[in-house]
Amino acid sequence: MPDHVNPRRNYRSPAREQQARHTRTAIIAAAHQLFLSRGFAATTMNSVATESGVAVQTVYKAFPNKAVLAKAVFDNAIAGDDESVPVVERDQLTKVRTEPDPQRKLRLYGAFLARTAPRHVPVQLVIRAAAATHPEAAQLWTQLQDERLAGMAYFAADLDRAGHLRTGITRSEARDVLWTYNAAEQYELLVLERGWSSRRYGSWIAEALIAALL
After folding, report:
1. What is the pTM of this model?
2. What total number of domains does the chain contain?
């Protein structure tokens, strides 16, 4: 290449990136509201575009289909924002992961569930309801359950390595117990149907896990 020819450079515009992030956040917020008010089937990409004030092509550019958009809505709900930092690396779960006392660890986890479940469980229930009749929702529901099971397997292994599990409780059993207690259905039954507060729900989950595992 001649010396006077500059190699092509990747052009990054902070203003453009900020605008793209703002647009993505607006799309997710609009989809969240529509999923909860209309359900999965009745929420179209066109309606999300209208609600968020962008062209439908912009929605498809960020999210190629409704299932991908719904997953983004769920991820945003559980994290509380659309930042790229994984939930497991956020401050709340870092405190759970690094807490040496097993009872306090599970109580911190219960408090985490109490704070986050009101945001993400309603989204999960929308996806679960649609899964019976919509293949893309069914596939997404399965993905959410698989991801949750993987997370609980990691949690159970952490408890086991530290010697916190009661004698006779295997990693796989601990994983399944954790997976059962942190399911959306627990929040649905206790908070949405029986009227418990989120705080009472989180405290009950923690004490139930302590009794079942430690």
Report:
1. 0.85
2. 1
